[in-house]
Amino acid sequence: DTGVSQDPRHKITKRGQNVTFRCDPISEHNRLYWYRQTLGQGPEFLTYFQNEAQLEKSRLLSDRFSAERPKGSFSTLEIQRTEQGDSAMYLCASSLGDRGTEKLFFGSGTQLSVL
Amino acid sequence: GENVEQHPSTLSVQEGDSAVIKCTYSDSASNYFPWYKQELGKRPQLIIDIRSNVGEKKDQRIAVTLNKTAKHFSLHITETQPEDSAVYFCAARNTGTASKLTFGTGTRLQVTL
C-alpha cells in the first residue's frame, strides 16, 4: 500500500498518560496534515506541515498536543496528560503542495480511547 | 475563518434513485470544493472535486455543481447502488491563502434494496 499509513490503528490509554501517534505520508508529498474526527462529525483541522516546518496550528490544539515532522517525511503527534475528551479518531493526510494540486489523501487513522 | 454547513444529515433512498447532498460555505474567497466518502471504519476517500472556475463536473454516476453567487455546492449521485451507502463530507478551501480544508458535518446515505 503506497498511501498514507498511520500507526497504531487503535490506542487505549488511561487518563493522564501520554500517547504518540505516527504518520507516514505518500512519499513525494511535501504537505502533511493532522485532523481529529469525533463520531458524527467531519474532520477538524489540528495542524499542518510543509516539509519540516509547522506552518499552522488550530486553536483546538492545546499545549498538551505537540506535532513534529523532523526530516520532512514522517510525522508524530503526541498528546500529554490525556483527558477523556481527547477520545477521537486522529487522521493524517498528505498532499503535493504544487499550485493547482490540492488533493488531500487520508490515512486510516488512529482511534484513541481514553478511559 | 471558513464555515461549511451540510444537509441533510441523513438520507435514505431506494436503489436506483438519485441522491442529492447540499453544502453552503461562508468565505467567498474559497475556490476548491472536494467531496469525500467515508465507509464505516475506513479512511475518507476523495470521490470528486471542483474548482471555482467551473460550474459543474461529472464523473460517471457522480456530479458536483457549484453556485459561487449563492455560495453553495451540491453532490448528485444517480442510479444509486447499495455500495454507495456511506457518510459523505463536503469541504471548502481558499487555495491561495488557506492551508486547510474545512469540512461539513457529513451526510449518512443509506441505499435500500
**Mass-distribution shape of chain A:** globular
Overall outline of chain B? globular
Tell me which oligomeric state these chains represent.
Answer: heterodimer
Structural class of chain B: mainly beta
Largest sheet of chain B: 6 strands, mixed
Mind explaining what this structure looks like?
The complex is a heterodimer of chains A (115) and B (113). Chain A is built from no helices and 11 strands. With 115 residues, chain A is mainly β. In chain A, strands 2, 4, 5, 6, 9, 10 and 11 form a 7-stranded mixed sheet that branches. A 4-stranded antiparallel sheet of chain A has the order 1-3-8-7, with no helix packed on it. In chain A, a hairpin with a 2-residue loop joins strand 5 and strand 6. Chain A is globular and about 40 Å long. The termini of chain A are far apart. The mean pLDDT of chain A is 92. Chain B is an all-beta fold. Chain B is 0% helix and 54% strand. In chain B, the strands form 2 sheets. In chain B, strands 2, 4, 5, 9, 10 and 11 form a 6-stranded mixed sheet that branches. In chain B, strands 1-3-8-7-6 form a 5-stranded antiparallel sheet, with no helix packed on it. In chain B, a hairpin with a 4-residue loop joins strand 7 and strand 8 (72-77). Chain B starts with a strand and ends with a strand. The relative contact order of chain B is 0.35. The chains are: A mainly beta (115), B mainly beta (113). At the A-B interface, strand 5 and strand 10 of A face strand 4, strand 5 and strand 10 of B.
